[in-house]
């Protein structure tokens, strides 16, 4: 289908075989995700920038922009692609386990919007998060992300009945327009395509940011922090070479539409490669309602 090749983070003399810890957290995500063409040159420049932020292994990282599906309509010599996601995420684990003293400061359900780059490495494909926004006043710990500090707080998210969603930070705005079939009839072709984009088991990372699931705040309040306490040294050693890997439970998945109408100021600066294309229509989108069990793999990209 398509994809993007992302970070191989290689220090073979330091790393052992990959560690996989399944089913650490449970989550539900409901909303729309869409694929958009962007300048291949601009996205390659963004990958070079991310390499430069990795002062430990940046010289060893192989970041590549992938080819799309043969049937994709854009010129793959000139364009690559990103995904834009607008969803409500419910962290079932925090909802069930977090102590009452933390509930006023840590969110268990949040609306958020993200811009991500699909990747393919020698091991897997998935999504590399490039920008994440939420208007939640509480600390947001998205279970699919590998670094809780990746979420940037904005002032408001305004939803209208016509499918328009406006994100605001000060005077800066980003406007999306979305539609999906209210009956949500499953579309097998769309499902197959997005399985390639996400990875069959929804693989995500915030590389090069180091792994951080907020256990300094949660401490032993949750089962996943108790488990990860035994892996602290290994996680510190691999730094940002960590992915979340999700198994998929019950779900609805159907075709949808999304357009990005405008991106100004703060939002443009977060993803100029997308802002330069606006207004722009997605060439494929899906609306989903899915339950996931979320685990970790580390290192994620090295042999």
Mind explaining what this structure looks like?
The chain is an alpha+beta fold and 303 residues long. The chain has a single domain, classed as Acetoacetate decarboxylase-like, CATH 2.40.400. It has 8 helices and 12 strands. The protein has helices at 40-53, 92-97, 188-198, 215-218, 223-228, 232-238, 265-270, 272-275, and strands at residues 19-39, 79-91, 109-120, 125-134, 151-153, 156-159, 164-169, 172-180, 203-205, 243-263, 280-281, 284-298. It has a 7-stranded mixed β-barrel with strand order 1-2-3-4-9-10-12. β7 (164-169) and β8 form a beta hairpin. It is globular. Residues 1-16 have low confidence and may be disordered.
